[in-house]
Specification:
The complex is a heterodimer. Chain A is mainly α. Chain A is 35% helix and 0% strand. The chains are: A mainly alpha, B alpha/beta.
Amino acid sequence: MALTRDDVEKVSLLARLQLTDDELNSMTEHLSQIIQYVHQLDEINTDDVAPLAHTLDITNVLADDVVADCLSREAALQNAPQRDEECFRVPAVL
Amino acid sequence: MSIISKSATQQREMLRTGELTSVELTTAYLEQIKSRESAVKAFVHLDEQQALDAAQQIDTRRAAGEPLGDLAGIPVAVKDNLCSEGVPTTCASKILSGFIPPYDATVVAKLKTADAILIGRTNMDEFAMGSSTENSSIQVTSNPWNLQCIPGGSSGGSAACIAAGFAPLALGSDTGGSIRQPAALCGIVGLKPSYGRVSRYGLVAFASSLDQIGPMTGNVEDAALLLQVLAGHDSHDSTSADVTVDGYVENVTQPLSGLTLGVVDEHYGDGLEAEIKSSVEEAIRVYESLGATIKHIEMPHASYGIATYYIIAPCEASSNLARFDGAHYGHRADPSTSDQTSTSEDALTRMYRSSRAAGFGDEVKRRIMLGTYALSEGYYDAFYLKALKVRRLIRQDYDNAFKDVDLLIGPVTACSAFKQGEKTADPMAMYMEDLFTVTANLAGVAGISIPCGLTDAGLPIGVQLQSAPFQEDKLLRAAYMFQHATDWHQRRPEF
């Protein structure tokens, strides 16, 4: 199952990456190689195997619902490329 | 004998008795850095003055009889993907150029509480994706054993730092082998703890179900010393395990009796370099001479580790790295210079795409793309779900193995350190570097790389021990047994 350049271009939008023509070409080649390699997993019968997303046997770790210290607004905004007094600024969406 | 050739454990004792001051110790390392760093390029950021100031404070507090932490006055280098408040943290990526974290990673906070001296930030493959540290956007780090060779990766800066005598202790992170592989290639000790042993809070996430932070040191006692400080449950990381932390420092020198080691025959296939094979076999004989029993075991799914990993890790990475959006922190491309041809896209999408395109390097883009593809509609079951099922089979292989043996022993890498540029054009060749290490991450078990030889070309060889989850105590004690019987850990490069 080879990837086409069109597939790669579609995925680049999903991934929010703007790829150049050269990148689209090399990415198509490299991703196809990797996809071909990982298809070796098809050799294994996994019909009765439950997926393992996580190796620790813990679920739903809950914390007490109490107010604790957190970053100040100023600290949270300090690395923003563009900001005003209160918010992150981004290009207009509407 | 120079002070920097002593172990951190010895230095700690000398500091305690007053035979040595932290300023003297820190100065000795800074001098070594000054004379050799231009050849190695292990650091992306050096905190010379802050380190000396902190050392002076420790000496003053010690002189005043104040109680001090477990690493008081000892320099520690930190991989550049661990947040440190007020200190640049870049993951060697252009997208985080100039990023100053507003908080400390838990491990960094623990080092501070232990009164360690934070000496600088070490180079790495961008976002820890790579096995040679060549994917750094900042610089290429050299292996101190041969400056034309790579130090391994992704924690190559930390490994080179220890090998070059720039610090006695360093932190690395390991998602598929990123502590153990560079440790092996640089002739040092690198421990990847069990998943959940060390808090990941403040570690810039690559693949959250695989990432672990661990010690990189010159010898096994120092790994025990550093792990003792790092280990433990943390309410900031819900995946850190609430499991008792053993007395690693106290126990490390006590040999294990009745030790049974498992050898996985599949590890000795065609790809393994002859010199590495014979060094690892010699290490096994050393254990036999120390009374260990060797059992041959099968891990039928181990050879599928790389394929499984290169689905799961990119899937998690594509999700984790979505946070680099040019809005909250990091690089934002100037919208006026970004591609305006896609008029169907709104300005925000164009900003995202151009910022991420400019900020991420090739390998990071490749993994984001791979993960996005594998998780996209219609492919999820075929790739991600399939890989998670094989992951369980790999874990079961380990569970079965540890019913019969205490630890597994085998190679860390198939080859010794390779020349810079040798594998950069071939992603699959680079991925195969993790063949023997990646299954430990998938299964959540602990692994350690310890020096066990040198090739004819003078490059280090490592042997890997792996334990069941949360048995780092056993792992360290077994590693110490080997170290005590050999002198490979005392070899240092002349460069």
